[in-house]
Amino acid sequence: MGEVIVITSGKGGVGKTTTVANVGTGLALRNKKVVLMDADIGLRNLDLVMGLENRVVFDLVDVVEGRCKLRNALVKDKRFEGLFLLPAAQTRDKTALKPEQMIKLCEELRKEYDYTLIDCPAGIEQGFHNAVVGADRAIVVTTPEVSAVRDADRVIGLLEAKELRNPRLLINRIRVEMVKRGEMMSIEDVKDILAVDLIGIVPDDEKIVVSTNRGEPIISDQKSLAGQAYRNIAQRIDGEDVPFLNLEDDEGFVFKLKKLLGIKTT
Amino acid sequence: MILDFFSFFTRPKASKEIAKERLKLVLIHDRANVSPQFLEMIKSEIMKVITNYIDIDESALDIQLTRTKSEDGESIVPALVANIPIKSIKQK
User: Fold this and answer.
1) Looking at the complex, does the CB of residue A146 fall below 8 Å from at least one CB of chain B?
2) Which residues from B are below 8 Å from A156, CB to CB?
3) Contact A107/A136 with Cβ under 8 angstroms?
4) Average pLDDT score, chain A
5) CB contact under 8 A, B23 and A184
């Protein structure tokens, strides 16, 4: 029996879609059967981030309304064995889906696939409720900014009220130099305020923008630190105990090396 | 002059400390707002204890989560403020 995991945040633009794309790809690279579900109906984007936008035929609403079978709507990613995308409907709105339909769909996915990752829409309205209603676990994505942390706290409260206990925290876009200067909250600061366990920490990385431009998950870039962070998160979801990245040392070493060689650091 | 001299050495507070303080305060409110039952529970418990000793006007009892200046006046801290109108004090 597979697992359904919802990736949520409250605030928009903190990296939910990028997280789903990369962690899902990471799980597929570990030889799991994985479905990436875009639950952001009306604002479809996971297909674009994954570079699969030209292959979408049917969508999630077509499946729940019986216009096609689930397997016809799933877009197979030819680059990664065992990875599939279930796109959101673009011309409908959040009311096109009912919670019962979502529960049924999740049950069906659980039978066939090891992991289903749901890309939750921003906000805490019906779209959010639909995205979390069929899930077994939740990952809350935040960045070290006051607005994102506040929204994450609200979402954690709502998840616990919905019996999705022990959501795990992913802190995204950490800028090590700023943390060192005391101008950005650290991992410990955010963790203390929200009082939930970590599933991962991801450094801010320019390469994410580049990989999104190309529609290629950064996780396949072996040299990228953010890619490494996502690989670690996929391992932890899959039940392995992996230590958290030591961002300060890594960054420090590269910086020192670049300085030594006289390379300009950007 | 002397003050200027010292302020040269005392650095302004790092912005992350300000962020943490502001967040902690706003979250106390947010979290309390999530369940209005929370304040109701406190209210009924307090009422139970006080009515053992004092006759109070239960309908006018008011409890609120608010913010106030800390004792040293340096920062704002959360406070639970209760307004309990007394009818009479019970004689033992």
Assistant:
1) yes
2) none
3) no
4) 93
5) no
* Residue A172, domain extent: 3-261
Any CB–CB contact under 8 A between A174 and chain B?
no
Residue A37 main-chain phi, psi, to 5 deg: -105, 125
CATH number for position A216:
3.40.50.300
Number of domains in chain A: 1
Interface predicted TM-score of the whole assembly (ipTM), two decimals? 0.81
Residue B67 binned pLDDT confidence (cut-offs 50, 70, 90)? low
Q: Where are the domains of chain B?
A: 36-92
pLDDT tens digits for range A156-166: 989 988 888 88
Contact A254, A245 (CB under 8 A): no
Cβ-defined contact of A193 to B31 (cutoff 8 Å): no
Residues written for chain A: 266
Residue A151 near residue A121, CB atoms below 8 Å: no
Is A157 within 8 Å of B24 when comparing Cβ atoms? no
Q: Is residue A266 part of a domain?
A: no
